[in-house]
Design a protein that fits this description.
alpha/beta; seven-stranded mixed beta sheet; Rossmann fold; 7 strands
Length: about 280
């Protein structure tokens, strides 16, 4: 990924507040257009296409893929920006955002996460967490097996329907189905990187900036547990539930999610630990 592979860059100079929003696995930067529309010209907004998305290029295959590889271009953007940085992430993008926040905790003005797929945290929980990790490992295994034996359609359907509800993939237009099938190898890399993320959970307790942890009312068990675990570990965390939404809330409830993100970034800086 390069800094040029962006959906939207608003105006203003390098000292203006910068909002960087990271999309979910299988998505692209355009998922954040509702958020972009709510920011005026005093902010810079960047929603990069991550690796595997249309504008993000393919993984080079230079070695085992890790979150650090995805994060490298974002960290570079942050390092070259003189003003405050607000980081946003959904699902896989939330896992990447957490990794970046642990790398540059002194550079963030705020962090906003919608059901981050920080699957490595499930290992630190007891029985319920281990069961939830087993659920994720089963999906990752289905994708891996599909890539090996050629059952791409059924593997992609399993991936999409788990996060979006049964029958979602079958109801999609053929061209969208084909695009998601092409993404399947990167989806496998994403799962592996998230599951084997090496950042210790203790790093998140050091965050001194405001952190918003959103989840859908109907969040899958793994991401619900992760959201609760992060809320318990991050001193400056604010937790909120998007009613009527599931894991794909930023896409199914874009206005509600965008409004809540803007409120956190620019109005909740002194916020409280509300549930």
């Amino acid at each position: 990924m390069t800094a040029a592979s962006t959906f939207y860059v608003s105006h203003n100079a390098c000292h203006a507040p910068l909002v960087i929003a990271l999309h979910c696995s299988g998505g692209n930067g355009r998922q954040w257009r509702n958020l972009a529309e709510r920011l005026d010209d005093s902010y810079r907004f960047i929603a990069p296409d991550l690796i595997g998305a249309p504008g993000g290029g393919a993984w080079t295959g230079a070695g085992a893929f890790r979150l650090a590889d995805e994060a490298a271009g974002i960290v570079e953007m942050i390092d070259h920006h003189d003003g405050p940085v607000h980081l946003v992430g959904h699902s896989y993008g939330g896992g990447v955002a957490l990794h970046i926040a642990a790398m540059r905790p002194d550079r963030l003005a705020s962090l906003s996460l919608y059901e981050p797929s920080a699957f490595h945290l499930l290992r630190e929980l007891e029985f319920e967490g281990h069961e939830a990790l087993g659920e994720i490992l089963a999906i990752a295994g289905t994708i891996h097996d599909g890539l090996i034996d050629g059952s791409y359609l059924s593997a992609t359907a399993r991936f999409i329907d788990y996060w979006s509800g049964g029958g979602t993939f079958a109801a999609m237009k053929p061209e969208l189905q084909a695009a998601l099938v092409r993404f399947l190898p990167k989806a496998s890399l994403d799962f592996n990187a998230l599951i084997h993320e090496s950042t210790p959970a203790s790093e998140y307790a050091r965050f001194g900036f405001p952190v918003l942890i959103l989840r859908g009312e109907f969040a899958p068990v793994p991401t619900r547990l992760i959201a609760c675990e992060l809320f318990s570990r991050v001193p400056a965390a604010i937790g909120a539930i998007v009613h009527g939404a599931g894991h794909m809330g930023p896409l199914t409830h874009p206005d509600v999610v965008a409004d809540r993100l803007v409120r956190h970034m620019f109005h909740d800086i002194a916020g409280s630990r509300a549930a």
